[in-house]
Amino acid sequence: MSDTRRRVKVYTLNEERQWDDRGTGHVSSTFVERLKGTSLLVRAESDGSLLLESKISPNTAYQKQQDTLIVWSEADNYDLALSFQEKAGCDEIWEKICQVQGKDPALDITQDPIDESEEERFEEIPETSHLVELPPCELSRLEEIADLVTSVLSSPIRREKLALALMSEAYIKKLLGLFRVCEDLDNREGLHHLYEIIRGVLFLNKAALFEVMFSDDSIMDVVGCLEYDPAMVQPKRHREFLTKTAKFKEVIPITDSELRQKIHQTYRVQYIQDIILPTPSVFEDNFLSTLTSFIFFNKVEIVSMLQDDEKFLTEVFAQLTDEATEDSKRRELVNFVKEFCAFSQTLQPQNRDAFFKTLANLGILPALEIVMGMDDLQVRAAATDIFSYLVEFSPSMVREFVMQEPQQTDDDVLLINVVIKQMICDSDPELGGAVQLMGLLRTLIDPENMLASTNKTEKTEFLSFFYKYCMHVLTAPLLANTAHEKNSKAPDLQESSTKINPVCPDNFQTAQLLALILELLTFCVEHHTYHIKTYIMNKDLLRRVLVLMNSKHTFLALCALRFMRRIIGLKDEYYNRYIIKGNLFEPVINALLDNGTRYNLLNSAIIELFEFIKVEDVKSLIAHIVDNFYQALEPIEYVQTFKGLKGRYEQEKDRQSQRLSRFRRDARSLDEDENLWLNDDDEDDDEDAVEKRMEDDFSDSYGKYMEAKKGAANGANNTKAAAIPPTIAAITPNSSASSIKTVALPATPSVKTALVGLVDYPDDEDGDEEDEQEEQSPRKRARLST
Questions:
Q1: CA separation for the pair 306, 309 (Å, rounded)
Q2: Is 298 within 8 Å of 262 (Cβ atoms)?
Q3: 12 in Cβ contact with 24 (< 8 Å)
Q4: CA nearest 507: which of 552, 550, 544, 469?
Q5: Among the residues of 125-170, which ranges form H helices?
Q6: Under DSSP, is residue 446 helix (H, G, I), strand (E, B) or coil?
Q7: Residue 467: strand, helix, or coil
Q8: In DSSP terms, which residues pair with 50 in a beta bridge?
Q9: Can you tell me the distance from the alpha carbon of 646 to that of 749, in angstroms, rounded to the nearest whole number?
Q10: Residue 559 backbone dihedrals phi, psi, to 5 degrees
Q11: Residue 466 above 70 pLDDT?
């Protein structure tokens, strides 16, 4: 057959609990007269022989695993599995099985461990007749018991029967008694069998058995059984660790004995699951789900009991904030609160809300403000974890607390500033803590999770607070590391290998910190608009950031470039004018030229920046780039980006020329109409008088033009006046408004006037300087003008 959907491998489970491959073939579901029912048939793809013929029994529990596997038990100790090549084929056969049994195909198992027919039979027949018959609990029968326990794990119904048998005969207690005997006799073979038995009982996944096994008088014997893994040469010493190494610390004495017992039990069961038990195999994935639930509900109960004990928590926070508390005691208290918050993650959402509100009422945030400023690294790390739980739960709760803090003269005592300082002063070379804190700050300043009320907006209030009291603390390292370059104009400094302030060397840790700060500032540019725009302009922040384009760490240069790219991506003319006025493309283009012919991420990122400007047709930036840097960029031909910028520039210049020409004609037409209207009553006037007036006007205008041209020599703003041909000034005196417009625009395009309408600012350099610099390299010119 060529249908790969039905292609399967047939497996059977052998006595060693290993799966044997019985061959590859194609499966089908057909009615077999001899079996009197719909059956699964698998014929070998090699010779067409019958590999499997299995009737789909209404009472057999079929289980679908991993989308391509169907497992079931034919009889005692005979388990089968079909492994499909394609999920579609598995789904088809699964639907057929469910159709025969009248089950929903959405289920992964067709039968509950005890189905309705079995329950009815339990009512009719004595219960014990359906239990697995357990051998006597004796040393000589341990091997037989181990084989029985491991043989039932693949069948849900047989697991259920074995669990009932173990419960009805109090078999667990008897087995643990045999363990103590074997250990006293140093009977290694018996201990190895007990390991298999106890491990198998855990995999039965029954809460009733767990209650017995994890009781105070049994759990250490269970741990003892699990020490004797046959695969290990020497037994592990888990009991020694749990009783001697692991110490239970009561930061505040717990008077409730039930709570104390529950804490001990949960720790030990968690240890069994995480440390002792091996990782479950593919067929054991769900065997420990009940154990996970057991631990989960224990944690919920512990949190609820502690939360209800108001005296206990009140005492914890009182000692935590008490200045007289010893450092070691405070460290234990902080670790307790951290574990307490970790346990709270098991609560349902409504219960978790109540939990964190309880902590807030007890003063968790003022306490964190104190402990996060301490010198103890362990205390600060634990406090950071607690803070992350609070921010994750409710950023608004943290913001509300911060804004309600008294505005003291020293901003360093504010909680957010304490967090920022801890981020800046992280001693970890990899800045692990700083990365975590940066993520928390990002959450706090994210407008997406800020609430808006009817009368006031949390976003406006908090961002105003943050930029007034906190932003200067965040940007302090950035400004400190770029201060030296800003005031330096020496070319030899610009060519040096280290461009950062020598006081704060450009080492890896400093570069990482600056990259984190830049990442946060880039987020602000994207989400805060007004506040960050004002801050950038006031601090000339982009210029300082672009100093880092000279960093020897490429990732830091890329962060600086990403900051500028995000600003340009807003297509905000306010930002564009700031960039043009400050000539802020210079460090970017210098970095591109210094990078040379290397095809790397920095090269691609810079080209992408210019490609964005070209594609989005940001006219003011295109004009600035072409006018000032095209001579240096023209040789770059492996991409068409810069030639495309020049093309955009020329197109805009042509459009401007056409528009100016058309506007001039329209203006003259308007002047003529105006003159006709004004002179309607003077139709008989002599034409010579009109010509004389025009000649006089020409003389006056030409005189003004010459004066303007003389002013250009003195450095006056003459970019527009210098381009005016004398003939344009000869207009009628009655159209003064039109004459102003016309004087300001050229009749024909020239090199200088091409920028008219694109960009024109009072601080533009005069035309003479541009002429002198026309033959210079834009790169060199930019450096000298820094």
A1: 5
A2: yes
A3: no
A4: 552
A5: 142-151, 156-168
A6: coil
A7: helix
A8: 43
A9: 16
A10: -65, -40
A11: yes
Which strands sit side by side in the sheet containing 37-44, from one edge to the other?
50-55, 37-44, 19-32, 7-13, 78-84, 69-75, 63-65
Q: Read off the pLDDT band of 89 (50, 70, 90).
A: confident
Better-scored residue on pLDDT, 119 or 42: 42
Asked whether the beta carbons of 82 and 69 are under 8 A apart, the reply is: yes
Query: 461 φ, ψ to 5°?
Result: -65, -50
Distance (Å, rounded) from C-alpha 350 to C-alpha 305? 16
**Residue positions counted in the chain:** 786
| Predicted confidence (pLDDT) per residue in 292-316, tens digit | 888 888 888 888 888 888 788 889 9
DSSP H helix total and E strand total for the chain? 35, 7
Single out the residue of 55, 54, 279, 73 nearest to residue 156, CA to CA: 73
Provide the β-strand partners of residue 25.
Answer: 8, 44
Three-class HEC string of 707-767: HHHHHHHCCCCCCCHHHCCHHHHCCCCCCHHHHHHHHCCCCCCCCCHHHCCCCCCCCCCCH
Take residue 22 and report the two structure tokens written for it: 């019985």
Segment of 57-66, 480-489, 703-712 carrying the highest mean pLDDT: 57-66
CB atoms within 10 A of CB 157: 19
- 8 A C-beta contact, residue 159 and residue 204: yes
Task: Give the up-direction half-sphere exposure of residue 762: CA atoms within 13 A in the CB hemisphere.
Answer: 0
Rounded Cα distance between 622 and 535, Å, is: 26
Secondary structure letter of residue 237 according to DSSP? -
Q: Label the pairing between strands 37-44 and 19-32.
A: antiparallel
**Residue 81, phi then psi, degrees to nearest 5:** -145, 140
- 247-273 average pLDDT score: 89
Neighbours of 784 (CB within 10 A): 11
Instruction: Say whether 83 sits in a helix, a strand or coil.
Output: strand
Question: What is the rounded average pLDDT of the residues 482-507?
Answer: 46
HEC-encoded secondary structure of 347-364: CCHHHHHHHHHHHHHHCH
The amino acid that residue 760 corresponds to is D
Residue type, 704: K
- Cα distance between residue 620 and residue 575, in whole Å: 11
Cα–Cα dist 550/538, whole Å: 23
pLDDT at 713: 43
Average pLDDT on 80-90 reads: 85
Decide if 473 contacts 540 (C-beta within 8 A).
no
Q: Say how far apart CA 343 and CA 572 lie, in whole Å.
A: 48
User: Strands 37-44, 50-55: parallel, antiparallel or unpaired by DSSP?
Assistant: antiparallel
Please name the amino acid found at residue 94. Answer: W
Write the pLDDT tens digit of every residue in 309-339: 878 888 998 888 888 888 888 889 999 999 9
Question: In this structure, how many other beta carbons lie within 10 angstroms of the beta carbon of residue 475?
Answer: 20
Helix axis angle for 395-404 and 349-362, nearest 10°, is 20
The Cα 708–Cα 645 span in angstroms is 34
Structure token pair of residue 200: 């198998």
| Residue with tokens 């910028």, as numbered in its chain | 645
Between strands 69-75 and 63-65, the pairing is: antiparallel
Three-state SS letters, 50-63: EEEEEECCCCCCCE
Degrees to nearest 5, angle at CA 127 with 121 and 133: 115
- Bridge partner residues of 19 (DSSP): 13
Whether the predicted model's global pTM rises above the 0.70 cut: no
pLDDT in tens, 350-388: 888 888 988 998 889 988 888 888 888 888 899 999 999
Distance in angstroms (rounded) separating the CA atoms of residues 126 and 164: 13
- Give burial (CB, 10 Å; 0-12/13-18/19+) of 394: middle
CA dihedral 464, 362, 294, 235 (to 10 degrees): 100
Q: How many CB atoms lie within 10 A of CB 395?
A: 21
Among residues 405, 402, 403, 404, which one has the least CA distance to residue 419?
A: 402
